[in-house]
Amino acid sequence: MNSLNQNSIIVISWDGITKPLDHILFDAIPDFKIFIIDYSGINHEADLITTKYDFYLSKKSECKGDLINNVYQYLYINQITDYTFIGLLDDDLYISTNDLNKLLFIASLEKLDVFQASLTHDSYYHHRQFVYKPGYLIQETNWVEIMAPFYSQAVFNAAGPYLTKSISGTGTDAYLIPTIQQLIGKTRTAVIHGVSMKHCRPIRTGNRTFSNNKTCMQEIHEMQVFCKNLYRNALESKDLNNNFIKSVLNREFINGIPLKHKLARIIPMFKNIYKLLVDASYR
Fold first, then answer.
1. How far apart are CA 152 and CA 273, in angstroms?
2. How far apart are the C-alpha atoms of 162 and 173, rounded to whole Å?
3. How many domains does the chain fold into?
4. How far apart are CA 168 and CA 147, in angstroms?
5. 5-37: per-residue pLDDT in tens?
6. Are 193 and 132 in contact (CB under 8 A)?
7. pLDDT tens across 84-121, in order?
8. How many Cβ atoms are within 10 Å of 148's Cβ, its own excluded?
9. Is residue 165 a contact partner of residue 225, using CB atoms and an 8 Å limit?
10. Contacts of 153 (CB under 8 A, 6+ apart)
């Protein structure tokens, strides 16, 4: 076991109805602590008699942002702070304990602050930058997706007081976490292509209206505005990272991909084609 990660926590969502953790292949002893959150709000701990876990919480959770806040509140109230990383997995991701061990190992070696495993090509996904890319162990990115993010203790703890601002969790991933990272100087973020997982269910967040009477897109926009103000108010103008403002805080998320972003991909596309041709010439 890698002793660096034995105190890391991986939170696994459960509906309290289906067989618990049936999407996780236990092919190795977990080098982390397992936190099961039953988002039904009904206590089903008696059904976990044959399941090994370290923490259990049953609390009604409306969507991923709500669930993450419930996890944070549990850790805060119980003064659980001695962990290296915390991962927050949806209940429709296929992955193994061996892969999760490897994921934490790579993150430790690469000194990452925020990361996720890449998605298999047959996954349901919205953002292609998170899909598996052969030939890479890790690839730096501006943010990771809310379905399976991993945060260092410092990042999660600093973001905790603001997690109530998004029920869906969209906006938390793309704006809040990167802003917190900038403010506390923990900015190493990557997709780990050395480990892949499959997202098995279609995305269901987009068309919902939540209990705060806001849609997913409204929550994203409001989080963007909040994070712009948080970032600018926390730092003097001379300390602002203009590249961060341009590439993260000013990036709009709408239904579909804006034309300017599609056009911006043309040059990298030709560079990648050239690289593939060069690589093939050496075989």
1. 35
2. 12
3. 1
4. 11
5. 679 999 999 999 998 899 999 999 999 999 999
6. yes
7. 999 999 999 999 999 999 999 999 999 999 999 999 98
8. 22
9. no
10. 81, 83, 84, 85, 86
234 and 186 Cβ atoms separated by less than 8 Å: no
What domain range is 234 assigned to? 3-281
Give the C-alpha separation, 154 to 115, whole Å: 14
* pLDDT of 124 over the 80 cut: no
The answer to whether 162 touches 222, Cβ cutoff 8 Å, is no
Give the DSSP H or E segment for 221: helix 216-234
* Cα distance between residue 80 and residue 83, in whole Å: 8
CB-CB contact of 113 with 189 (8 Å): yes
| C-alpha to C-alpha distance for 268 and 231, rounded to whole angstroms | 30
13 within 8 A of 65, measured Cβ to Cβ: no
Q: Which CATH number fits the domain that encloses residue 178?
A: 3.90.550
